[in-house]
Design goal:
Blueprint: H1 7-23, E1 25-27, H2 29-54, E2 56-59, H3 61-68, E3 76-79, H4 83-92, E4 100-103, E5 110-113, H5 118-126, H6 137-157, E6 165-166, E7 169-171, E8 181-183, H7 203-209, E9 210-211, E10 216-223, H8 228-235, H9 238-245, H10 250-259, H11 263-270, H12 275-296, H13 301-310, H14 317-330, H15 333-348, E11 351-353, E12 359-361, H16 372-399, E13 405-408, E14 412-418, H17 421-435, E15 439-440, E16 446-447, E17 451-456, E18 462-464, H18 474-507
Parallel strand pairs: 2-3
Antiparallel strand pairs: 1-6, 1-9, 4-5, 7-8, 10-14, 10-17, 11-12, 13-14, 15-16, 17-18
Helix pairs in contact: 1-16, 2-6, 2-7, 5-6, 5-13, 8-15, 8-16, 10-12, 11-12, 12-14, 13-14, 16-17, 17-18
């Protein structure tokens, strides 16, 4: 394939992302304020619960300290924002806080340290043998909930806005893979626009706050099974590539083999009205998905267990080992072909090159060492970089067509499009052309990463355009647009009904 990634490409991309930075994303500040009020009341309830059960005056930060300053009768005080005080308090209460692995910044070696990072708390919550009493786990759960709320509040709800817009500063040279980095801008406005929360208690509330400007709608696209295309092409796994071309969800395939259930049973479980059955099926599906990613990038069982713990799943290394072995049995080419190719490249030349022309040198390899850390980076580099540059090239294309792009997230793009069917169709055609790219890998395999899309009244209330590879068509866009208009009407009627009820209640 022709050399696409050059200094000229990076320079043009930097200019385009500067324009995206300046557009920002409009925020519904009324909904944002309601979300903040809910979070504050729930944080107070958590602190009160912990204070009463731990006999410690618990608060969050110096502002909240004023609320509890008058509380007497507690032996000690605990600021949940203070890691050292939290660790000491948990140990005094009789919790056996597990040590976690941490990489030394200078030596890059892993060591086990005492910590109250999320991983340590997740491990503590998942192992009742570490609790001082059988009911003590509820306190750890409340601490984890508080941590999630505090992070969400500080990072998103309290982000500084300008004219009700959330701004960001994209950096085209911010990562070694070529994917963009993102953070608050030089004036302290906004934050990271690439990693908005997609899961968690308050993710949906935040999505409702992200709105298009009046007279516009959101048009979002992302690359389907993005990084798996380069992995399977480099693995020469023709069966997997054929599955993906036909829109087969391979996560179900792995989950079925791991848990000895039929794919139909898993699908039925994920749609079940029974919350426990649905949660079980979702967990099994996600372990199939996470296991595939872990196997693709050479993750070891202990590391996979830690990754899952950080996501709220308590899965011991022994089970992670079984999951990885099952997936490797189904997809043996990942290790035998893809990983072998990467190892040959970096041991022989220290250089990896993507199909789009981006290069990276790998140093620090040691003889007679397993080199897990460097190999993990090497296995993930070509897939992540290829997908990231595929997005970057599409962004450049779209900039030549319109000025609608307001956000990207590594493998996805969001545009703020006029609320007009014909203009939406024009943007659809431009977007499809922007991502239409045949990528040729070193072994001669050629693939085009397909895209899927949705349109929305905000980040939360959306209509899906396509569920399969071949369904991203003009006809489907028109159908989705008309459904979106129906959704808007339904929401307006619901809001009007709610407002009428409030007025009637106040008059009575």
């Amino acid at each position: 394939m022709d050399q696409i990634v050059t200094s000229s490409y990076e320079h043009k991309l930097g200019h385009v992302y500067h324009k995206i930075d300046n557009r920002g994303i409009l925020i519904d500040v009324n909904k944002l304020k309601k979300t903040e009020d809910v979070i504050e009341s729930e944080l107070i309830a958590i602190c009160d619960y912990l204070s009463q059960n731990w006999n410690i005056n618990v608060y969050v930060g110096k502002d909240d300290f004023k609320r509890v300053a008058g509380n007497t009768g507690y032996a000690k005080a605990l600021n949940l924002n203070s890691p050292s005080t939290l660790l000491e308090s948990l140990q005094d209460l009789g919790f056996k806080v597990p040590k976690i692995r941490k990489k030394d910044a200078e030596t890059h070696e892993y060591e086990f340290v005492e910590s109250v990072a999320e991983l340590a708390l997740r491990k503590l919550y998942g192992d009742p043998s570490l609790w001082p009493a059988s009911t003590a786990g509820e306190g750890i759960k409340r601490v984890l909930d508080a941590r999630e709320m505090i992070t969400f509040r500080n990072r998103y709800v309290r982000a500084k806005l300008y004219k009700n817009r959330y701004y960001s500063n994209y950096n085209v040279a911010g990562t070694i893979t070529g994917r963009r980095g993102s953070k608050k801008n030089i004036f302290g406005l906004g934050g990271n626009a690439q990693n908005f929360p997609s899961r968690g208690t308050y993710a949906e509330a935040w999505k409702e706050c992200l709105i298009p400007k009046p007279g516009y709608i959101f048009f979002m696209v992302d690359q389907m099974q993005a990084e798996d295309w380069p992995v399977q092409a480099l693995s020469q796994n023709y069966e997997a590539l054929d599955d993906m071309r036909h829109g087969i969800n391979r996560h179900y395939k792995f989950a079925s083999a791991i848990f000895n259930k039929t794919i139909d049973d898993l699908k039925i479980g994920r749609k079940s009205q029974d919350a426990l059955l649905r949660a079980q099926a979702d967990m099994e599906y996600n372990l199939g998905k996470r296991g595939r990613h872990a196997n693709n990038y050479g993750m070891q069982p202990t590391k996979m267990s830690e990754m899952l713990a950080a996501e709220g799943y308590s899965v011991p290394p022994s089970m992670c080992k079984m999951i990885l072995e099952t997936i490797n049995r189904i997809d043996p080419n990942v290790k035998q072909v893809f990983h072998k190719y990467i190892q040959d490249c970096i041991f022989n030349s220290r250089v990896l090159r993507t199909p789009l022309g981006r290069e990276r040198q790998f140093f620090g390899l040691r003889q007679h060492d397993k080199n897990y850390s460097i190999l993990n980076e090497a296995y993930s580099w070509i897939p992540q970089s290829t997908v990231g540059d595929n997005t970057g090239i599409a962004i450049l294309w779209l900039d030549g067509c319109n000025c609608y792009v307001i956000q990207e997230s590594h493998d996805s793009v969001c545009q703020e499009v006029p609320d007009d069917e014909q203009e939406l169709l024009r943007v659809y055609r431009d977007t499809r052309a922007a991502f239409k790219r045949t990528i040729t890998f070193h072994n001669g395999i050629q693939e085009e990463i397909p895209i899927e899309g949705k349109i929305g009244l905000n980040w939360h209330d959306t209509i899906t355009i396509n569920d399969s590879v071949d369904d991203f068509t003009e006809e489907k866009v028109v159908i989705a647009y008309r459904k979106l208009k129906e959704l808007r009407q339904q929401l307006e009627e619901r809001n009007a009904s709610t407002a009428t009820g409030v007025v009637a209640g106040s008059l009575s």
